[in-house]
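Researcher: Following up on the earlier apo prediction. This time include the ligand. It's zinc ion, with the SMILES given after the sequence.
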Amino acid sequence: MVELAEEPRRMSGGGGALGVRIALRCARSDQGTTACLTLGPKRWPHPGVQAASPRIRSHMAELVIRAARLATPLQLIEDGFVELDQGIIIRIGQGSPPGRQGVVVDLGERLLCPGYLDVHVHGGGGAEVNHARPDEVADALRQLIAFHRGHGTTSLLATTVSDTPDVLRAVLEGVSIAMRDPGSGVLGCHLEGPWISAQRRGAQSLEALRPPSTSELEDLAKLGGGALRLVTMAPELPGAKDVIRLARKLGVVVSLGHTDCDYEAARKAFEAGVTHATHLFNGMPPLHHRHPGPVGAALSDPRVFFEVIADGVHVHPALLGMVAALAPERMVLVTDAIGAAGSPPGHYRLGPIQVVLKEDRVVLAGQEEVLAGSVLTMDKAVAHCVEAGVPMLVALRAASYNPACSIGEVSRGLLAPGRRADIVVLDAELGVEATLVEGRVVHDPTGLFGHPVVASRSG
Ligand SMILES: [Zn+2]
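Model: Understood. Below is the ligand-bound prediction.
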């Protein structure tokens, strides 16, 4: 009846279920959800349905979610369903889910997509990553991820700003603690500095910058016990080559960023194993027709993922459309959000620096022409892209699948059998209506799945 596949793979086409479906609805008092009994569906195989391994398929799904549209996001499936069991997606498809069913929640005209994955986020909901003690870091991460879940982000890399060696050590330890929480959305740590260019440091603290150091990298990687996933650095600095080589050996992705390098130096860095570019256009020389710089190098190299801050301030909307059209499979939306995300205008901290939140931007205190992160959330980033003319699937892919690929994360970022059941429910304007993490509803203010759940007070 359905195609069996041992491994998740890309879906290849549409297809549909034909037949008569009669749904009998009854309330489930224990969960407040709706059970749906499907009688006599006639189906035949089509490429829009996948099943997990036969071992997994022997289970009845705990939960089946139906919606008018499913963005996997490599494909759009109309009238789709997702079956979940034990926190994992076991099947997706079109039409009526065949076979036995558990609880079915029909979300009508809404859109389902994978939970967003933010590889560059410093804070949110009043919490930030940089702290002096590991327990403070872990507590802050729980608070900031609760906030971002309300905006569709289910996984993130806790991102530092340049700080003292002791603070970075505490962050790595704190991240490794938070990663062990059940259902944790913390995938690891992104070190944004301290090995960056003084000329292109943006709002980062000049005192906290230092030359790339293999011993510091080794120490931080060891403390994190696998938590260190991504390092943003300037490849032109002395010692950078050795750090890139060691990072690759340790399985840490290296990102070119806050750099003053030219096109040739950027090309060499990509040859040396750098596969990511941090907030393209920001913190680096601009694209010039005779000097393409790191922007030109990153856009023209098919091995390189590039981050974009789509808040309408960091990058002009016209460029969002251009880079999305040029490399839809490599664009990675990030928020670069600071702790003030979700808070009113005022004075805030970003690691060791003082910043001011204006209406639509965050700037360095006393230097208002310097942007200092953002208060963007992923739902807004996706919506801004679509407003700028980026096709919806491309925008959703840049918020989920592409970032997962950029850090080699194979368990998330895709609605496919075998992937973690991290799912966002979107309305017609791409606003987040509900968020599920490992199949558990963590944000559902209107009670689509039963009892209302609010991800955080500020979310
Ligand atoms: Zn940043």
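Model: The radius of gyration is 22 Å.
Researcher: Noted. I'll compare it with the apo version next.
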